[in-house]
Design goal:
alpha+beta, 4-stranded antiparallel β-sheet
């Protein structure tokens, strides 16, 4: 089981300082764990979390229970969204859908808008490190992580940004940082992905990778 609710707060990745900003969470069923679904994955529920009361309270309980009941994973976008700006974008997007008579997309329009626009003042990146890759390239996973982490620290010193820390994933770990020179990193570690607005795992009880 992976439960990153507390870890994301401890690392100051998740915090609630502006009533207009919120975290976008989606619960996703994958065909790997649910062979009966038709697509490779399916969003079964979305949450918009703007307070510690919800994060640690009824919404956390609902997320965990729904994941357990549906063989699903919960993913959180670590860059917050704005209620005001997302609603403005929602109006524009709905007008576009209706003008092209794409009525079936209206039902999921808000999540589509949230998936492509963020309003985080302190933008966070996710460095996706796979344990299998480190096992192949280094004597130990710890050695690989330390080497990669040291290089990221060097780049962050140049950019003046922060390393928030790591959270576990089913395949390895996510290193969450502020921005840095991604071209330099790609030259040194071409096989490691940098995600500039992708989600990280919030909760799952599934062991499949």
């Amino acid at each position: 089981m992976i439960n990153n609710f507390e870890k994301l707060v401890e690392r100051d990745v998740v915090h609630f300082s502006d009533p207009d900003l919120f975290y976008f969470v989606q619960l996703i069923k994958r065909k790997k764990e649910n062979p009966n679904i038709k697509r490779s994955q399916k969003v079964i529920r979305s949450y918009y979390i703007d307070s510690y009361a919800d994060y640690y309270g009824k919404l956390q309980d609902s997320i965990i229970r729904t994941c357990d009941e549906n063989n699903a994973r919960a993913y959180i976008r670590v860059n917050r969204r704005s209620y005001f700006k997302s609603h403005i974008e929602m109006i524009k997007y709905l007008a576009e859908l209706l003008s092209y008579q794409q009525y079936t997309k209206v039902r999921t329009a808000y999540d589509t808008v949230l998936g492509r626009s963020q309003n985080e003042p302190n933008k966070k990146w996710i460095i996706d490190v796979d344990y299998k890759d480190m096992e192949e390239k280094y004597e130990t996973i710890e050695q690989g992580y330390l080497e990669i982490g040291d290089y990221i620290h060097t780049l962050l010193e140049e950019s003046g940004n922060t390393m928030y820390g790591t959270v576990p994933t089913p395949n390895g770990l996510h290193i969450i940082t502020g921005g840095f020179n991604s071209s330099k990193f790609a030259q040194e570690y071409p096989d490691i992905d940098i995600h500039k607005d992708n989600p990280t795992i919030l909760y799952t009880n599934l062991t499949n990778k």
